[in-house]
TrEMBL record:
Skewed-composition ranges (Acidic residues): 659-671
Protein name: Integrase
Coiled coil: none
Integrase catalytic domain sequence ranges: 260-489
Biased composition (Basic and acidic residues): 627-637
Biological processes, Gene Ontology terms: DNA integration
Length: 694
């Protein structure tokens, strides 16, 4: 019993002593379902195994007598030749043990040389040796005994040739010290420039010689080393992209958790990338642009996407937040299918809560609760953190150099390049090896036009396209971002967040300055207005800032600043003193270029500012003239117009209160105030005006 192929079986062996029918017996043979017994008085008997083991007084009396549990394993994973050899040995071992081979028919009679009733076990083993010798198989009695023991202990698996079943090391017979050295060098290569296998083999040899002595540990041959490297460097990009190699090195240990959100706005990821498309700037030069975008995790809605010249500022990220909080307006020329009324969004219910959605495009407004961003200075700046704080948004920086922490926005950028950019004139490909020969001449869209195309594509090409990461809770089919928003907003609800003009000012960068007799000085520009008369050389009341006044400014329009009225509340809008000399808004980088042109020849600060204002006006005028233009100035002016054309959110302008000299006296203080509005005037050109007359 017990020589079958069940997983666990109770084993009864030939030679065991048993108690049966109140008498001690010895098992002399096991034949099929029968057991041959020899009683202590010499009387032989044959009994069914089922009757023997089910008898009330049955017991094993041998010294090793406890019933043994043997695991009989199959031959999965064993080479076919070794498996056939094991089955061959099974036929002979079972015949020696029981007298009959496995699978013998019922009523079969053992061969005389293997009949346990007439032959001892030793005689049966010697008969099997002779039989195998006649078949050409070399085996001794000791071999037969070893096979019998292994078969009893391990079943058929015990008869497999151990040489074919020997577990192979992960890296073959390679010295473990060589493996350790390679792994150490591969880890160190994460931050270096990509090299070849020969360089890595040279580094491994130097490390082994330094650690164990010259030539104490031999380095495998080049072919063996190459195969070993394929195994040890799989997935590490050791000989590939350095960027991918660093990304893998910074990846946290597995297993990874998924980025998950249950309601719109619960987690929003924001990032900036350079798009694979060129825009045509006003100077006639084609250059790539940067995209700053925010995406909602729960619905995969692109909350906002803004294009900028390369060099995104903190104010760009701050103003992007403002754009996420306002509906996407319909543009002239857009098809009616882009309206929210014609989409799957619950327009009627949402419009009852937020009237701004009445004429909006088919893109939902998502109010962020938590924003995940990288650790770039743009997103860790005081301007961006302050903007999020003012809007009640939590900021969660990703781990250093871990793009996997914001994998959704990274994948979104890939999707924008694939689904949008490659269809736009001026597409560059993802790297120079995939770039056309004359991409700069193919570019035909200005950045403002490209922004319009991107806004339209987001509404029709992204928001209404099924996304494989959004599955319907009912049918498990892929949903579009709009469909997922419609499904989640019914459970999570929608509360609009309205922005005022003061909210817009709060999103701008901040500086702390003194209000002097001449006004406020910011980066060698002077801002002054009669609204400052009450506060010149006064303490702001903010002791933490040593009495300085909070100043907000727009880097893309430096024609005015806003000073917080720490005494009476609100904001004071203060114009630039040289504003009448400049006919157009200008950005910070435009001012820096103009100031460099004037600073070399004019040491006096006041004269420098006046000359810089004149040079600035001249620069902007030349940018709009014919082909004889200064390329350096044209590029600066082009960046100014490109940046200022799309950077402001669609909100109401702020109105500020400005006092006048007539309103103030030492006796009665402030009697009245009036709304001050700055109206800039250009420089009057008499000759140009005369040419307009007939």
């Amino acid at each position: 019993m017990g020589l079958g192929h069940s997983l666990v079986t109770r084993v009864l062996r030939v030679g065991d002593r048993v108690r049966f029918e109140s008498m001690e017996h010895q098992v002399t043979a096991l034949t099929g379902t029968w057991a041959r017994l020899l009683a202590t008085d010499g009387r032989p008997s044959a009994v069914l195994l089922t009757r023997l083991v089910s008898a009330d007084d049955f017991a094993l009396l041998s010294e090793q007598e406890q019933v043994r549990d043997v695991v009989i394993r199959d031959l999965a994973g064993v080479p076919e030749g070794a498996a056939a050899q094991a089955r061959f040995w099974e036929q002979h071992v079972v015949e020696v043990e029981t007298g009959l081979p496995p699978g013998a028919e019922a009523g079969a009679v053992p061969r005389p040389e293997y009949d346990a009733a007439t032959r001892t076990l030793t005689e049966r083993e010697l008969a099997k040796v002779a039989e195998l010798d006649a078949m050409g198989v070399v085996a001794s009695a000791r071999t037969i005994q070893r096979m019998r023991r292994r078969y009893r202990e391990q079943g058929l698996r015990g008869l497999v040739d151990t040489r074919s079943n020997k577990a192979r090391g992960r890296y073959g017979r390679t010295d473990s010290r060589v493996v350790e050295a390679i792994q150490e060098i591969v880890a160190a290569e994460a931050g270096t420039s990509t090299g070849t296998r020969d360089r890595l083999r040279w580094k491994v040899k130097n490390l082994l010689d330094e650690r164990y002595g010259p030539d104490a540990v031999p380095v495998p041959s080049k072919s063996t080393f190459g195969r070993l490297m394929n195994s040890l460097t799989a997935g590490h990009h050791t000989f590939g992209s350095a960027k991918n190699r660093r990304s893998v090195a910074n990846r946290p240990a597995a297993p990874f958790s998924v980025t998950w959100a249950a309601r719109p706005g619960q987690q929003v990821q924001i990032d900036t990338t350079t798009l694979d498309v060129m825009a045509l700037f006003d100077d006639g030069q084609a250059r790539r642009v940067e995209l700053t975008a925010a995406i909602d995790i729960a619905t995969r809605t692109i909350c906002a996407a803004v294009l900028r010249p390369v060099g995104t500022k903190a104010v760009d990220a701050s103003l992007l937040l403002a754009r996420t909080l306002v509906p996407e307006p319909m543009r002239p020329g857009w098809a009616d299918t882009l309206r929210m009324t014609g989409s799957r969004l619950p327009h009627r219910q949402l419009a009852e809560i937020d009237a701004r959605l009445k004429d909006a495009a088919a893109k939902p407004v998502v109010i962020p609760e938590t924003i995940v961003c990288d650790r770039g200075k743009v997103y860790l700046s005081q301007a961006f953190i302050g903007a999020c704080r003012s809007l009640g948004i939590s900021v969660q920086p990703a781990h250093p150099q871990a793009p996997t922490d914001k994998g959704v926005i990274e994948a979104t950028f890939d999707g924008i390049n694939t689904l949008f950019c490659q269809y736009v004139a001026g597409y560059t490909g993802r790297d120079v090896t995939r770039r056309g020969a004359a991409v700069d001449r193919e570019a035909c869209w200005s950045m403002a036009q490209l922004q319009e195309l991107l806004d339209e594509w987001v509404v029709i090409g992204w928001q209404q396209r099924p996304h494989e990461g959004l599955l319907s809770p009912d049918t498990a089919r892929p949903l579009s971002p709009n469909e997922m928003f419609a499904a989640l907003v019914t459970a999570a609800g929608y509360v609009p967040l309205m922005l005022t003009g003061e909210d817009y000012i709060e999103l701008l960068p901040v500086a702390w300055r003194t209000i002097n007799d001449y006004g406020v000085r910011l980066d060698r520009r002077t801002y002054d207005d009669q609204a400052l008369n009450l506060y010149r050389r006064q303490h702001s009341g903010v002791s933490a800032k040593r009495g300085l006044w909070e100043v907000r400014y727009d880097p893309y329009d430096l024609t005015q600043i806003w000073v917080r009225n720490h005494h009476d509340g609100g904001w004071l809008r203060i114009p630039w003193t040289h504003l009448p000399m400049v006919a157009a808004p200008f950005a910070d980088f435009t001012w820096q270029q103009a100031r460099k042109s004037a600073a070399a020849s004019l040491p006096d600060r006041a004269e420098q500012e006046t000359a810089a204002a004149s040079a600035l006006n001249d620069l902007l005028n030349r940018a709009n003239q014919g082909p004889d233009r200064d390329p350096t100035h044209d590029k600066v002016a082009a960046r100014t117009r490109a940046a200022s054309s799309t950077h402001r959110p669609d909100i109401e302008p702020v109105m500020v209160d400005a006092g006048t000299d007539d309103d103030f006296s030492e006796d009665d203080g402030i009697d009245s105030q009036e709304t001050g509005t700055v109206i800039p005037f250009g420089v009057f050109d008499a000759r140009a005006e005369a040419e307009r007359w007939p």
